[in-house]
Design goal:
Chain lengths: ~450, ~240
């Protein structure tokens, strides 16, 4: 992380310094603007240049696009990834890189943290806490986390960067033309997704909302789900841009795995994670939609610590019914009923030709069989890499399906964006944990109506 | 005497915040606060001198408040100047109408030299000098022959940039200005030190997103006269 106060490094050579400091500042500002513009141009050219066919673009330049796009950072990247992901429906785009999608900003200065505190509480951080780390101990996607102490307790204090909500909006405007081209959709359809993404991102900028959801959901989940724990939240020390909770011990997934936990512990943690999602999705219809490893703390006692209810997807009833009818598999054999559900979920459209529909339904059937497999068995071994290989292979295969690739229409409901992402994230963590999961789900007990 | 000066400034400010313009004449203004015109002229030549004086008050109060903070002595120079800007904006908020009026005169071309900031600038320069010396002593700011002379101007250019950014900022609670302060200060302190690219890129992206701020596209950072600038040696 940047250390704002250390300026030790010597400048390369005296002669490279323009005589006027002022001019130098101006010059670098211009360079900065140019650099920014270049990335935009470079990327736009890649996409627009007719000599680069869309097929090549997808296959060969995916990396490039990612690189260029990642210079735009933040919401731009998230949107592009989600759009391409949903179009291919499979987690092909879901890789480690997805997890890197973060706003990149230098850390907030301590004076700004002080100002934010003053505005929110009329007090400085050290007025409120006995100790308060001047530098952030962790970066959050749109803010940073400080460590504080008071009365023998340790707290995590998340402070948001200024102006994020507005920059989300302008980022999204900036990325829209790219999103349109990446997914090859028309603008009106893109708007539908964009609206969903924008609403979700904007709700993430409201820490008051996050506070309320954290307290509400964690309380409900604690009553029903075993082996999970949540920090206490402190409304008194929280505002729309500050969120205070207990400090969580334990380590994140990667580091935890390095300590060689036993199969039993990995199963227990995986089960806790599965149950956590299962309960929210099927009972609460409201779900922590960000299964990023940074949001889970694991300890050798097999208790799963969970934070970050910033991104919560509320699942509409109608969508829920149609979505899980598919996953459940009871419809896989019934072509007509399946087709009806696919219409409702926006996968198929009335103006699709019969052959397009057959082709699409064929791919979707395979996907549903595959992705829904854990639901149809009592116990599922997520450590089975063959299963994940199958998923990736099918992703590849489906990206070659004409009806999908050349589709000018969106395939999939907007409400599916975050739910798909949630499942991909969940599967991914369970795979890394190599966990064996009892997938008993409320779904199996209830009679799903078509 | 101090009492009268205070009274004049206070009433002048409330007139502006109410009417979004200056009083019609000194005569009318003096009358409205039960004062002889003659008396007014004892303290101020005209409204412009009040303006200058109010701007001077603002920066004086700012510096006083910043220095009074208990963490201030622990701050590195970069943090001191950040703290100065944040406090300055807080002070200015209560006089937004006055500040807008000061700047809008200049935008209308009535007075392009921003003279109302003369005393403010002098006070700032003193403070900047103090900070630069401290920064050089702690090696947070690298002392370079020839170049060091203009550090002060650079800091002033940045201050002026922030003021104008705030004038044009209509975001919620001026959050954009907070971001601008962070970015421009990080940039300048990167320039005073090592690798300038991080700050430049971050600031560049920020400018791109805020290109609608009309003055950004052709902002002259130095706020100096062209001929003065031409006199300096440049290797760029
Ligand atoms: N209560 C906490 N205890 C310890 N570390 C925390 C806590 N809250 C956040 N962190 C650290 O800060 C990181 C970012 O916080 P998080 O709330 O997930 O932010 P974001 O909403 O941006 O993802 C987490 O991944 C974690 O490493
Ligand atoms: Mg997180």
């Amino acid at each position: 992380m940047n250390q704002p106060t250390i300026m030790a490094k010597k400048i390369n050579s005296q002669s490279s310094i323009p005589a006027s400091k002022v001019q130098r500042a101006a010059k670098f500002v211009k360079t900065g603007v140019k650099v920014g513009k270049n990335y935009v141009k470079h990327y736009a050219k890649k996409v627009v240049d007719p000599s680069i066919s869309k097929e090549n673009l997808h296959a060969e330049n995916a990396e490039d696009i990612y690189d260029s796009l990642s210079e735009l950072k933040g919401s731009a990247l998230k949107v592009a990834q989600m759009m391409s992901m949903d179009k291919n429906v499979l987690p092909q785009a879901y890789s480690d890189k997805f997890q890197m999608a973060q706003y990149s900003a230098p850390p907030l200065s301590y004076p700004l943290v002080v100002k934010t505190f003053r505005k929110a509480f009329g007090k400085t951080p050290t007025d409120i806490f006995e100790t308060f780390s001047k530098d952030a101990v962790n970066a959050a996607s749109i803010g940073q986390v400080h460590k504080a102490e008071k009365g023998g307790k340790t707290f995590a204090v998340k402070v948001q960067y200024p102006g994020v909500a507005e920059s989300v909006k302008s980022d999204l405007k900036m990325v829209k033309p790219f999103a349109v081209r990446i997914a090859g959709l028309n603008e009106k359809d893109v708007d539908l997704y964009m609206e969903e993404v924008q609403n979700m991102l904007l709700s993430e900028t409201d820490y008051k909302l996050e506070l309320n959801r954290s307290m509400d959901l964690s309380e409900k989940v604690l009553k029903e789900v075993k082996n999970v724990k949540f920090p206490n939240y402190y409304p008194k020390y929280s505002s729309d841009r500050v969120l205070t909770m207990d400090w969580m011990n334990g380590s994140h997934l990667g580091e935890f795995l390095n300590s060689n936990p036993s199969q039993e512990i990995r199963n227990q943690l995986g089960q806790a994670l599965w149950d956590f999602y299962d309960y929210q999705i099927h009972v609460l219809h409201e779900v922590h939609a960000d299964p990023h490893p940074g949001n889970f703390f694991m300890e050798n006692d097999g208790i799963l610590g969970i934070i970050d209810f910033g991104c919560v997807k509320v699942i509409p009833k109608v969508f829920y019914d149609n979505y899980f009818v598919l996953i459940d598999g009871s419809l896989l054999e019934e072509k007509e009923k399946l087709r009806k559900a696919l219409f409702k979920l926006n996968f198929l459209h009335v103006d699709d030709s019969e052959s397009e529909m057959d082709e699409l339904q064929g791919v979707l059937l395979k996907m549903l069989e595959l992705l829904g497999r854990p639901f149809r068995e009592d116990e599922f071994d997520f450590g089975n890499d063959d299963y994940f290989q199958e998923i990736y292979d099918l992703g590849e295969e489906s990206s070659k399906v004409k009806a999908l690739r050349h589709s000018k229409k969106p395939r999939g409901a907007k409400d599916g964006l975050y739910l798909n992402r949630t499942y991909f994230g969940l599967y991914n963590i369970l795979n890394q944990l190599k966990a064996n999961i009892k997938t008993t789900s409320p779904l199996k007990e209830r009679q799903v109506l078509a | 005497m101090e009492k009268f000066i205070k009274k004049i400034k206070k009433n002048y400010l409330s007139y502006i915040s109410l009417h979004k313009k200056r009083p019609k004449s000194v005569l009318l203004f003096a009358e409205s606060i039960n004062m002889e015109q003659k008396e007014f002229y004892q303290y101020f030549k005209n409204f412009e001198t009040i303006d200058k004086n109010i701007w001077l008050d603002i920066i004086k109060i700012t510096i006083e408040k910043v220095k009074a903070e208990s963490v201030y002595p622990e701050y590195a120079v970069r943090e001191k100047i950040l703290s100065f800007y944040f406090t300055l904006i807080e002070e200015l908020k209560t006089h937004r109408a006055f500040a807008l009026l000061s700047f809008s005169d200049n935008f209308l071309g009535i007075n392009l030299s921003f003279q109302f900031l003369d005393d403010f600038k002098r006070e700032f320069n003193d403070y900047a000098k103090e900070l630069i010396e401290e920064g050089q002593a702690t090696e947070e700011i690298i002392d370079r022959p020839i170049v060091s002379k203009v550090y002060k101007d650079a800091l002033w250019g940045q201050t002026f940039f922030i003021l104008r950014f705030w004038i044009n900022d209509f975001s919620k609670e001026f959050e954009k200005t907070d971001a601008a302060i962070e970015k421009v200060t990080n940039l300048s302190f990167d320039l005073l030190g090592h690798n300038p690219i991080d700050g430049a890129f971050d600031f560049g992206k920020f400018l791109l997103q805020n290109i609608k701020f009309p003055f950004l596209s052709d902002f002259d950072f130095s706020m100096k006269n062209k001929k003065e600038k031409g006199g300096e040696k440049s290797t760029s």
